[in-house]
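Step 1: inspect the first sequence and its tokens.
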Amino acid sequence: MANLLRLAACLSLSVSLNSFAVPVFPDGGIHLGPFETVSLNAQTHMQNYIIDFDQTTPFYFTDSGDDRSHYGSNENYYITFYSNAGLRFWVDGNSFNYFDFEEFTYSQYDRLGFQVGQTDELSLENFQTSPSSTSETPINWLQTSSVYSPSWSSNFDGSRFNNSRSMNGWIFPSNNLRAENLGHNEGEALDLYFSVIRFYFSSDSSKEDRGWFFSVYPLEIGSPVPLPAGILLFLSGLIGLGVIRLR
């Protein structure tokens, strides 16, 4: 019994330490300052950006067309943000923040998606696809893809955008209106409690739209970081076994 409780305590400590892991900022990473704008384009492709200022001021993240202009055709870029405690993305579709891509019911030819991790790029996984990158509250309005490796594919995992297999994913819907149809609430930010966040954008050779413009705020140190669900169940099971043994 004592050994069982010691194991539970050790696992609990290990999970706690891992959940608040300090990110390994990459050598040569670019430090972003407040109110700076980062556009995902050929110049910033594959770049690492470090956000280490306080949480009261934002930076701005946009597509290659910058503010309000359309992205280009045949783009295939990625960019990585490192922060101490995660980032808050204002994506609410007001006159300032938005996302807007080529819209189809059965395909997502132009798509912005992201992976998350807690320490470095080796920890990256598609958001909401594994215990280590699962949100405490599922974000149902993000889309999935039938291909799980970046930059994914134009096909949803389900038959159409609002199929249950096409939701709770890691790719932005075609626009804010579709996100609302899938469950996004007006004025709701996207909080990502992860130290490493990598965005991938892919466009085809046809119609281009406005892309995206996000205001991004660092989250405070000590913000809650979601624990892997399997670990929580395992720990609760150990505790339950301990109670039964005592009885």
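Step 2: inspect the second sequence and its tokens, then contrast the two.
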Amino acid sequence: MPTKNRQQTLIIAALSIIGLFAVDQFVIEPLIKVWKARETRITEMRASIAAGKAIVQRERGIRNYWRDISERTLTNNASAAEHRVFQAVDRWAQNSGAVISGVNPQWKRDSEDFTTYECHVDVTGDLRRLSLFLYNVEKEPLALRLQSVELSARDKEGAQLSLALQFSGLMLTPQKR
């Protein structure tokens, strides 16, 4: 094979290899990346659709659960809500035999969607009565959240105890339809 033909063949082969490399780097690789990104996005969308379908299928249960929670919240009438909380605190004390030494309530507007009614209650009694008082607080059907509990002894033997309890009640703002 003559030298000129061999050089042309080598130049053509080298240019072909460079061309194939360029096509691979600038066409095939970006297309593969786009295809994989698209595949990932389709997978995410399918998962989102499946989650949405699951929520739609559980709609009745979710609505019933929300209705139950909404019914347990404090009423939108502030004085009636305070009255319900004071009745609950009084009921807890009567059922447990503990003595209420102080109640300090306070309204807080946290958001346009809800208001919280924070209440600090001081209770005295022996360990059995305070345990029963806390049990009554925990089983209360109102939407109350226990935020802090502090127990301290009032005498050296620990027979008389003091319980400082802070909880908050939830009052939802009615939504306009």
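Step 3: confirm your contrast with the notes below.
The chain has two domains: 3-57, 75-172. The longest helix spans residues 3-57.
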